[in-house]
């Protein structure tokens, strides 16, 4: 087992830090210049909670029409579950790193191309289409293969809740979250920390980075050239994650949609591009 699996002692905190030298350690993983996705680097996956309907979905290299770069294009349109009027359900269309177990840093250019979000008249919860980059990084104890219980996941997210009052039209919030999974499927999780790290407009590029820094008991996040921010944790690092596919680290379009028994059914749609994927691995 690698030396990175250490016990962690610091208090949970979120704050700015002096920029690190992590960028010097990054190596290009994929720039999606091929016609088809590379099966030696990736595999695709869709998932949804009970009652969610995914009706349009795409995951392939395409040329972005405004900037003209060729990147990974992920599209997903999902309709709400009609099973209740409380809580939210989720769906996703993701590209998963084939060998993600020892990846500590993921960096990507992200562009939200199009989006749609409609709310529910009988459920106060918001609809939120979003991009997520990250996955499970470690388990707090002795993990069980295929079981996410006590896995720690971390994501850098580009999202826009339908009830947001602090965002301009076409503006997305960039934020980060670290959670611990409470069950084998990670259907329930407990937040260990979160931080807002800026905004980006639709059809504008942002270079985003997430880094697990086990030596300092924290996750580091960066939005373009802004100062890094971090979330520290107090939980012990016991073993690699139990989540399937070595932590299920991925690039994805992910939806949170309020459950709704009234018509019309809420819809969450997003088309996003990812480009110039770089990674750093644990020593």
Q: Can you describe what's shown?
A:
The protein has 283 residues and is mainly beta. It has one domain (14-277): Sandwich (Jelly Rolls), CATH 2.60.120. The chain is 0% helix and 52% strand. The protein has no helices and 16 strands. The strands form two sheets. Strands 1, 2, 4, 5, 7, 12, 13, 14 and 16 form a nine-stranded antiparallel beta sheet that branches. Strand 12 (205-213) and strand 13 form a beta hairpin. Mean pLDDT is 92; it is low at 1-19.
Which terms summarize this structure?
seven-stranded antiparallel β-sheet, 16 strands, single chain, nine-stranded antiparallel β-sheet, disordered N terminus, Jelly Rolls, mainly beta
Could you tell me the radius of gyration in angstroms? 18 Å
Measured between the Cα atoms of the first and last residue, the distance is 11 Å
CATH class wording: Mainly Beta
Q: How much helicity do the residues have?
A: under 10%
- Beta-strand segment tally: 16
- Element-level helix/strand string: EEEEEEEEEEEEEEEE
Secondary-structure blueprint of this entry?
Layout lengths: L13 E3 L10 E4 L11 E7 L4 E11 L6 E10 L8 E10 L5 E15 L10 E12 L11 E9 L11 E11 L7 E13 L3 E9 L4 E6 L5 E4 L17 E9 L8 E15 L2
How would you concisely characterize the structure shown here?
With about 280 residues, the chain is mainly beta.
């Amino acid at each position: 087992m690698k030396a990175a699996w250490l016990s962690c002692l610091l208090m949970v905190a979120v704050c700015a830090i002096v920029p690190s030298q992590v960028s010097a350690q990054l190596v290009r993983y994929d720039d999606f210049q091929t016609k088809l996705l590379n099966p030696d680097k990736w595999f695709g996956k869709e998932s949804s909670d009970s009652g969610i309907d995914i009706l349009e979905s795409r995951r392939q290299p395409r040329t972005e029409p405004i900037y003209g770069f060729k990147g990974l294009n992920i599209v997903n349109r999902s309709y709400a579950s009609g099973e209740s009027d409380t809580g939210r359900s989720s769906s996703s269309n993701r590209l998963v790193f084939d060998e993600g177990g020892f990846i500590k840093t993921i960096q990507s250019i992200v562009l939200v191309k199009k989006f749609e979000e409609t709310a529910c008249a009988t459920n106060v919860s918001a609809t939120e289409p979003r991009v997520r980059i990250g996955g499970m990084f470690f388990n707090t104890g002795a993990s069980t293969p295929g079981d996410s219980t006590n896995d720690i996941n971390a994501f850098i997210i580009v999202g826009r809740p339908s009830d947001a009052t602090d965002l301009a039209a076409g503006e997305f919030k960039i934020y980060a979250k670290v959670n611990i999974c409470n069950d084998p499927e990670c259907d329930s999780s407990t937040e260990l920390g979160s931080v807002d790290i800026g905004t980006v407009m639709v059809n504008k590029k942002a270079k985003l980075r997430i880094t697990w820094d086990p030596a300092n008991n924290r996750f580091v996040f960066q939005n373009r050239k802004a100062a890094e921010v971090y979330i520290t944790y107090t939980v012990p690092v016991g073993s690699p994650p139990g989540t399937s596919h070595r932590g299920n680290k991925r690039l994805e379009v992910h939806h949170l949609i309020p459950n709704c028994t009234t018509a019309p059914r809420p819809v969450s749609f997003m088309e996003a591009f990812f480009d110039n994927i770089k990674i750093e691995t644990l020593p």
